[in-house]
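Notes continue from the previous slide.

Worked example: a multi-chain complex. Inputs as given:
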Amino acid sequence: MSKFYVTTPIYYVNGAPHLGHAYTTILADAMARYHRLKGDDVYFLTGTDEHGLKIQRAAEERGISPQQLVDENSARFRELFERLELTHDRFIRTTDDDHRKAVEAMVEHMKASDDIYLDKYEGWYSASDEAYYGEDEIEDGVAIASGSPVEWVEEESYFFRLSKYEDRLLQWYEDHPHSVAPEARKNEVRTFVESGLRDLSISRTTFDWGIPMPDDADHVLYVWVDALTNYITAVGAFDDTERFEKYWPADIHLIGKDILRFHAVYWPAFLMSAGLPLPKQIYAHGWWTVEGEKMSKSKGNWVDAFDLVEEYELDVLRYFTMREMPLGNDGNFSKARLVERNNSELADNIGNLVNRTLSMSMGFIDATIPDVADPTDEADVALRDRALATVDAVDAAMEERQPHRALEHITKLSGETNNYIQTVQPWAHNKKGDATRVEETLYCALEAIRYVAVLLSPFVPDASRRILDGLGVGNELRTINSLQSWGGLPAGTTIEKPDVLFQKLDPPPEPEDEEEEEQEAEEKPEKKGDEEGANIITFDQFLKVEMKVGQIIDAEPVEGADKLLKLTADVGEDQPRTVVAGIAKSFSPDELKGLRVTMVTNLKPAKLFGIESQAMVLAAKRDDGSLALATYPDDVPPGTGVS
Ligand code: ME8
């Protein structure tokens, strides 16, 4: 059995948990759940970082003791993680007793390697970053990298011989291509080390909220020596050899990009000094902006993690954060984007698939998994192969630490299953009385849904569980292993339709300016259907939409709206129609001229940028937002009905 050990940073408890804290811990949770699903022995660690000057000062400001402050605020983090239904194996606190012992042992090992000596520190320190800075890293009283204020420190201090580890660190990055990721971060760290390392001050005497230096209680240990050691405390370093050897080294330390140097330089050097193995990977994620702006208390756009939990369903929050931000890049937390992803990817794609397939199963196959032969029909075989390939693609994406790509593969499989249903039309076979084909097609769709739901479970656990409960499958059919061969759904099982899986959300109000019109032209919010079968329409309803082949005679930009084009289109009437279409980012006017495309011709005309649009062009939107048009050959005259 493989093991998988994943950690998050331990969080400072001087303030309340925010979006960034929630994000990293959700991410680690999804990784932990994914590996459990694979059958790995998983250890998932998170917790709080409770010592140091920053915490001591925060307590002083509130007029309470540091212990009181950390007890109170650590409890908030713990509560948050419960609300987020995270599956960590331990919530560690640096004030825990076993942690203090591990830190003491760590320092003893470093001392035994002759890596600690007493001297005097003179230089800059930022309490807010809990970091020492060189003269070249300071400008106008703040650290250039973080913008945090620095103060001058002059005091006796123990030092760690960091400089001794320069070559070994460089060798480690070289020998282990994935040790620090993404690649650009590794280069950043390498450059820093190549520029020369100074020995590191690892103790302070002017405050006392920390773990005392062994054998010299006048000093408290530098908070990062203390904090980083949490990763080995939790798996029994210096205490439980069997456990330690089982889980250490960690498979991945997930961190934010701002704490890279501590993790990718100091931490491996400490471990080398103590004679311990190094982590397999340190992965730095980017930062969230909020509606395009840096999150900051002074700007008033601080996102409190508890507010997030109040406002959004957990599944939606998890899906959005992991789908929106490719791991390693920065991301923007935009409500409009969240709503868009929720509505189109969760509700309209996955929710719709489950809803329509289970509705048909209720009606056509008596809510029972049918007994079918192995697929032979071309469409069935293609769907099966797609599902099997998705399992591998998701695994590869997770190995590469690209959960957003894993999610993309899963939603694609769902989309393709929707297409499959559209193509094989179980309802038509039902009408003809071809029970075998109805059973075959619904079995395929239901089995594909099982694939979607199992693969989704690390990311969107609640909806996944509800789907799998609906399919009536036991735990043995909820593992990655159960997806290795198609056809796991056992005949005869009774199935049940889950309640609406993903509620559609209303887009946030948009700013009242021309942008608004432009946006609307591009992405008309769909009307919410009534609850039951929110996305299913009747044939009669479908017939109400009039679609025709429209030939684009002319196309020109719309002034002031860079997404829009004004088209003149022949839809087989006496006069051409004017159509305003949000397709300018994907097509130039010239390449559109002459094309025959699908147009909806009975939509109520709408005015956009002062131009009345008299029809709508249908286009497919790729994941990256670019559009594709389906076109008709020349022998299909403009005005031909599309159905
Ligand atoms: O640094 N988006 O704790 P911390 C994404 N105690 N992530 C963000 C973010 C944002 N806007 N803002 C902050 C510490 N973060 C130390 C760690 S580990 C041994 C000790 C992330 O509470 C930030 O990148 O200040 C960091 O990874 C994490 O929040 C915790 O920050």
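Summary box: The CA atoms of residues 109 and 275 lie 8 Å apart. Residues 9-12, 20-21, 23-24, 49, 227-228, 255-256, 258-259, 287-288, 295 surround ME8 (CB under 6 Å).
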